Structures are given as C-alpha cells and as structure tokens.
C-alpha cells in the first residue's frame, strides 16, 4: 500500500476499533489503482460527525451539515465524511438535504462515476459494487446508475466527465455520452465557481484536446461563460500544441487569446480571482508585443517576472519552441532590472538641472530608462549627468 495510505490507515484503524466502518474513497483510490500519484486522501465512515470529532484530538467541522469533518493527523488534513445519501435535488442545485446512512454501498451509489465509486479498507480490500475497477482497466467513464438521472440531479457531472477524459485520457461510455445533449443546457444553472474548478482541471489535463472535441461535438461550450459564440476559437485550440503550458494562468491565457475576448471581462465571467485576472491580462499584453516585434530589451525588462509564461504562450501560438535559456541570458545581461537600479535619483536630477520639480522628472526618467536599456547611455552618474545637460537643450 502507498505510504500516504499507510499513514492515513491509522485513522481508519482508530475508527474501526471504536466500532465504526471506515474506508478510503474517491480520487485517491482511483488514482492509486491507476498507479498515479495521489494527493488528498478522503475517508468515508459510518461514524456521525460528532462521533468523529470525539474520537480525534484535532478536528475542524468544515461541513458538518454535509457530514464532513477535517481531521488533522501527523501534519496532514483528511476529510472524514459520514456515509450519506443525497436527497431532494431541486432546480439542478446541490441537494437540499443529506441523510446519514450506515452502508458504504449506498454511499458509493451517490457518487458520480464508477471509477470514483470504489472504497478501500485499511487492509487494501476493495468495495466496488459498480465494477469501477473494470472501467478503470478499460479506460471508461461511466455514470453510477442511469446517466440521465445522474445528470439531471447534478449537471456539473457532465463537466466532470469531460475533465476526467482530459486528465485520465479515458473515453466516455456511450450512454453516458448520449445523455450529454439533453442535460448540457442545465449547466447554466450551476454556480460558475464549480464549473471553473472542473474546467481548469480539464484545461491542464494531458488529453485536453479530446475533451475540447467532446465539448464542441456536444455543443456544451454554448452553456459555458463567454464561450457561447466561440466555437471557432475553441477549434483553434485543437490545432495548437499546448504541451508547453505549465501554470494555470497560461492555460487561462491561451483560452482568452483564442476567444479574442477582453481578458478582464472574460475571466471575470469565469469568476477567476482578481490576481489571476491581472496576471493573465499583463501576460497577454506581453504576448501581443512579442508576436508583433519579438523580444526587445524593453520587453524583457518590462516582463522580467513573467517572461516564461509569455514565451510559452507565444510558442504555443506560433508553433515554435520556447527559448527560455536565451531569454534568461539576455535578462542577466540587462543593465538594469528595475527603475530603482538607475544610478541616479530624482534629487540628483533636480540638483543638476536647477529646475523646479514637475512632471518633467517622470518623463526624464522614462526616457533615461529606455536609453539605458538600449545601451545608448551607461548606467553611471557622470554619463547620466551629461545626458541630462543634452536633454535640457532639447
Ligand atoms: P481529484 O483528484 O481531482 O480531487 P476526485 O475524484 O477526488 O478528483 P473530488 O471533486 O475531490 O474529485 O471529489 C471526491 C469524490 O466525491 C469523487 O471521487 C466522487 O466520488 C465524489 N463526487 C465529487 N463530486 C461529485 C458530484 N458532483 N456528484 C457525485 N459525486 C461526486
Ligand atoms: Mg479529490
């Protein structure tokens, strides 16, 4: 058993010793069976939230009404959730009620796909009532029970199916795929934040093109923020080699680029955090200049903190290889990296010029900065002083 599970198994052991059933569930079991690295280990148990909280020393009641308690153990956090059934799905929103139950099988039955509905006990024995292991072997995403019912309950599952196609390079089972069309329009009812999480995971998966093809074939893009009329833009993505992209902001950047939308408006519709929106906006401005004029010294200076992201996006768009090493060398050779590295300050300039302060000082520094970067003036006091004298004559 994976080391991460062994440590988490101590929680299962403790629950078992107190007379409760407890299993690993969800993504960690799936990824472990696929021999992929696992991250969060989620636990399902017959213990009620209060009972879980009594058993462990460090707990945080994050979603008690849904049965979830976070247990801290040896520096890690685990979501421990009581076996539950979800009821009263209303208007395609989250269930309005959950009820706690005592059987793991029933808990697994509420889960989205067979590959996500496998439980594993502390000895590594699997509970797999929907043959998830079989589908993992075949590389198939299939809903637990009838797709129509499951997508009707929660249309986000359609988006989740597509992101698993991208992340796992799996195919959709045919009735699961067929049910897409009927329920895709209801994605509009789902909170954009939830869609964004799945969409981002889709964008960063290795088989993102298969996922986008599926989106387009099933016309799902029509119900996603800002993409209703962007079929052609998304088709462009299919022609690009996106493997160069590393960070989330780069994936959002290329998506924004192909839609030709204003980054600020587009990403706001996707409810992205304002920090990411600003970064993407700045990166795309850089991309535009680099695509038009290549990397000038001024461009390297302005974007020395984000040149890699710009270069990766530019490489994806043009189909050339990124040239990080060359750019890095050129940045190292720049005479300055920030304005405060200029060898003189405002006081020097005022003293030498004998002029009153005013907007001209800012204009002077702007021009000076360019000249230093271009190498026409050395970043040295005397040279700058001489240039000031000349500048004043202009
Ligand atoms: P990841 O590795 O990306 O975290 P995951 O499968 O663990 O993938 P989560 O969103 O963390 O995905 O959800 C944990 C588990 O909860 C899933 O494996 C699935 O069993 C269940 N689940 C999550 N979302 C839904 C949903 N919308 N409908 C039904 N079951 C869901
Ligand atoms: Mg998970």
UniProtKB/TrEMBL annotation:
The keyword Disulfide bond does not apply. The keyword Nucleotide-binding applies. Residues 22-142 form the Poly A polymerase head domain. Its EC number is 2.7.7.72. Pfam families: PolyA_pol, PolyA_pol_RNAbd, tRNA_NucTran2_2. Its cofactor is Mg(2+). Keywords: ATP-binding, Magnesium, Metal-binding, Nucleotide-binding, Nucleotidyltransferase, RNA repair, RNA-binding, Transferase, tRNA processing. InterPro entries: Bact_CCA-adding_enz_type3_sf, CCA-adding_enz_C, CCA-adding_enz_firmicutes, NT_sf, PolA_pol_head_dom, PolyA_RNA-bd. Mg(2+) binds at residues 40, 42. Residues 248-387 form the CCA-adding enzyme C-terminal domain. Gene3D superfamilies: 1.10.110.30, 1.10.246.80, 1.20.58.560, Beta Polymerase, domain 2. It comes from the Bacteria. A single active site specifically recognizes both ATP and CTP and is responsible for their addition. Homodimer. Belongs to the tRNA nucleotidyltransferase/poly(A) polymerase family. Bacterial CCA-adding enzyme type 3 subfamily. This is CCA-adding enzyme. It comes from Exobacillus caeni.
């Amino acid at each position: 058993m994976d080391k991460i599970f062994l440590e988490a198994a101590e929680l299962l052991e403790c629950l078992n010793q107190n007379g409760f059933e407890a299993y690993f569930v969800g993504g960690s079991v799936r990824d472990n069976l696929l021999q992929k690295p696992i991250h969060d280990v989620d636990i399902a148990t017959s213990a009620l939230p209060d009972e879980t909280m009594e058993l462990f020393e460090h707990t945080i009641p994050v979603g008690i009404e849904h049965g979830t308690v976070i247990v801290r153990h040896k520096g890690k956090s685990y979501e421990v959730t009581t076996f539950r059934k979800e009821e009263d799905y209303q208007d395609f929103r989250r269930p309005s009620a959950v009820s706690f139950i005592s059987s793991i099988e029933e808990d697994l039955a509420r889960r989205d796909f067979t590959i996500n509905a496998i439980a594993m006990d502390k000895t590594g024995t699997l509970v797999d009532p929907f043959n998830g292991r079989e589908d993992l072997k075949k590389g198939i995403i299939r809903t637990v029970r009838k797709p129509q019912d499951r997508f009707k309950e929660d249309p986000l599952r359609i988006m989740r199916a597509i992101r698993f196609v991208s992340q796992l390079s799996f195919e959709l089972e045919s009735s699961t795929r067929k049910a897409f069309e009927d329920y895709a329009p209801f994605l509009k009812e789902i909170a954009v934040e939830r869609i964004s999480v799945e969409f981002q995971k889709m964008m960063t998966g290795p088989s993102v093109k298969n996922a986008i093809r599926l989106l387009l074939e099933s016309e799902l893009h029509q119900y996603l923020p800002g993409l209703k009329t962007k079929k052609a833009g998304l088709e462009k993505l299919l022609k690009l080699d996106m493997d160069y992209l590393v960070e989330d902001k780069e994936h959002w950047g290329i998506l924004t680029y192909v839609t030709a939308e204003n980054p600020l408006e587009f990403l706001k519709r996707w409810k992205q955090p304002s920090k990411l929106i600003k970064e993407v906006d700045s990166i795309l401005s850089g991309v535009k200049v680099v695509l038009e004029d290549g990397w000038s010294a001024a461009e390297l200076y302005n974007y020395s903190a984000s040149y890699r992201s710009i270069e990766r996006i530019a490489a994806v768009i043009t189909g050339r290889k990124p040239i990080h090493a060359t750019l890095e060398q050129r940045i190292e050779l720049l005479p300055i990296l920030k304005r405060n590295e200029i060898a003189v300050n405002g006081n020097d300039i005022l003293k030498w010029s004998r002029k009153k302060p005013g907007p001209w000082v800012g204009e002077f520094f702007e021009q000076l900065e360019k000249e230093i970067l271009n190498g026409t003036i050395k970043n040295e006091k005397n040279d700058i002083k001489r240039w000031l004298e000349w500048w004043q004559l202009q």
